[in-house]
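Bit of a strange request maybe. I'm writing a small parser for structure token strings and I need a real example to test against, not something I typed by hand. Could someone generate the tokens for this chain?
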Amino acid sequence: MGHVPRGPVNHEQVDAALEALTRPGRLREAETRVAEMAPQLQVILLEALKDGGWLEAHESQVRQAAGASEEPDRAAAIRMLLAEETRMGMLVGVAVGWELGRELDGRTDTLNTTDEGA
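Reply from user aminoacidic:
Good idea to test on real output. This should exercise your parser:
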């Protein structure tokens, strides 16, 4: 498990870390570990989405998209739903990963992200 910062993190540090993640092959090991834990992570993701009320809103949007009278409108609505589902899954997944890292590091205090030092 990688190191989770113990103090405030500035935007410059986050930008540098995100840049490091774009290097070829950088995420291969993490992808393997996530694939092994996928069933447990899916349960956590579903719970987080349910707790946030996202599932009910999403179901309403699915019905609305399916009911569009014109095929181009249906296709556009479905594309938008897929993009939104991907964004939400990614955001919740990142939050779960961040918290999992902190939990494994024995930390449960709030991690502040600030502009200090930027």
